[in-house]
Amino acid sequence: MMNGNxxxxxxxxxxxxxxxxPRSLTLVQELYQYGLATKDEYTKLLRLYQEYVTEIKSVxxxxxxxxxxxxxx
Length: 73
Prior knowledge:
It is a single chain. By secondary structure, the chain is an all-alpha fold. The chain has one domain. 71% of the residues lie in helices and 0% in strands. It contains 4 helices and no strands. The longest helix has 18 residues, at 39-56. The protein is elongated, with a radius of gyration of 14 Å.
């Protein structure tokens, strides 16, 4: 992304979002704000991230997040 290759950056951010990396959403949102990513690309990443979070959701993870104060359990 820093080298100006936004297509490649979006591919990597898509992989990151698919694996639940929340910063990928922030980065693609910034790309969108600067006109370097499309609304469809941002929407796709958001959907992939939400699918991941839904897939791993469990009572045990919610309890661990409360105990540790870390939302990523």
